[in-house]
Amino acid sequence: MEAEGLYEAAVLGLAAFKKNDIDLSPDGLHTLDVEVRSSITHSVPVRKVYQWLQQGVRTPKEAVLKERLRALL
């Protein structure tokens, strides 16, 4: 999967897990490893992904992105 940002990539990953009946709770200590094309891997707590989705937005583009990603989960 490809995404424009770290949190978008994390949500897409969570949606893929959900599609396969694997639930990663935002309250757990689960961490996702997100690798970008430059081979840099970021670790992001699942809890932080859910927090990011619930935070406010700065631009209309970000609002559309977060709404689309919320619908996946």
Write structural notes for this entry.
This protein is α+β, with helices and mostly antiparallel strands and 73 residues long. The protein has one domain. A two-stranded antiparallel ribbon has the order 1-2. α1 packs across α2. The radius of gyration is 12 Å and the shape is globular.
Keywords:
73 residues; alpha+beta; two-stranded antiparallel sheet; 2 strands; 49% helix
Describe, in short, the structure shown.
By secondary structure, this protein is α+β, with helices and mostly antiparallel strands.
Total beta strands: 2
Low-confidence stretches: none
C-alpha-based Rg, rounded: 12 Å
Assign the structural class, choosing from mainly alpha, mainly beta, alpha/beta, alpha+beta, or little secondary structure: alpha+beta
Strand order of the largest sheet: 1-2
What is this structure's SSE topology?
Elements: H1 6-19, E1 31-35, E2 41-45, H2 46-54, H3 60-72
Antiparallel strand pairs: 1-2
